[in-house]
Amino acid sequence: MPKIPDHVRGARFTGWGTALGHKVVTNDDLAKTMDTNDEWVRERTGIQRRHIGGSTSELSAISGAAAMKMAGVDPSSIDALILATTTPDRTVPGTSATVQNLLGLSCGAFDVNAACSGFVYALVNAHGLIAMGAERVLLIGTDTLARITDWTDRNTAVLFADGSGAAVLEATSGRGHLLGWDLDADGSAEEILYAEIGGNIQMEGKEVFRRAVRIMVDSAQKSMAHAGVTADDISVIVPHQANIRIISAACDRLGIPMSKAAVVLQETGNTSSASIPLALFADLGQTKPKQGDLVLLVGFGAGMTAASAILEWGAQ
Ligand code: ACO
What we know:
The chain has 316 residues and is α/β, with parallel strands linked by helices. 32% of the residues lie in helices and 25% in strands. The strands form four sheets. A five-stranded mixed beta sheet has the order 1-7-6-4-5, with helices on both faces. It has a four-stranded mixed beta sheet with strand order 8-13-12-11, sandwiched between helices. A hairpin with a 3-residue loop joins strand 12 and strand 13 (305-312). Helix 3 packs across helix 4 (95-102) and helix 7 runs parallel beside helix 8.
């Protein structure tokens, strides 16, 4: 399990922003075109509505610009852009290049595809760049899953949606906010959740559910051990927003009360790479971290990837 070396240059978030697809689609809207109903979707997933629309680069440009504005930084001061997405606008080039241009950045830009764990994968990579001398990294998680969803398939159409969340990560003089992290993948489980190029998401929902709880708990426990903290020390858990029952089962096994969980999926649905930053940053009235809180980010996704990080909120 990797540990953060002593004396490594630290970082913290100094600004953030979010974006959602412009069209709101309720469960009742979906029930007009497929054999489903609001009660089933709410009870089995927790989702009440979702936001659809926009391309990955468009949503990224909105959340990224808001993050830079809040941080009070000029585009020319960003040293790297990392875009976590599993729904790029094009196969080539990386959508990060499109976003770099839209935002007027003059720095390296690359995509990270780790499905719904993407934002935490990108976060750990961004810390690596800062350890290597970058001052400021713009980190964006965006997915437009509506484009790869079969809107006649009730098994998947009720779950997926579009959104984006971004943060400016800046070097600090002290240890910074990252206390521990974990990145995992199990490619042998690829066939339970995938989309062919040009195709729609195919999913064995029950098997994904079963594995999701196990790998989230495992990754979170590794990060906590790595950081030298326990579940009792965690003030806020920000889990991937796939299904309220997955979040509840994971919290239960970790011994973290649901009252500490940031949950926005009732409003957003599953937005993959955007899901953790939306739960952390979007102004949707949910649990939010305060200065000094220990925050556990934990995601899982196709691959099957899992990723977690422990942040001391606002630490210099
Ligand atoms: N509306 C109404 N009924 C439905 C619907 C629907 N949308 N979908 C399924 N049903 C029916 C089924 O046909 C079944 O009926 P039956 O009992 O007559 O056969 C019944 O409801 C139960 O279906 P299950 O599939 O057993 O439902 P389950 O409780 O497993 O919930 C769900 C399905 C919501 C998909 C759940 O398994 C889940 O959340 N899995 C994880 C999915 C996930 O997280 N995916 C994203 C991964 S992240 C990424 O990388 C994109």
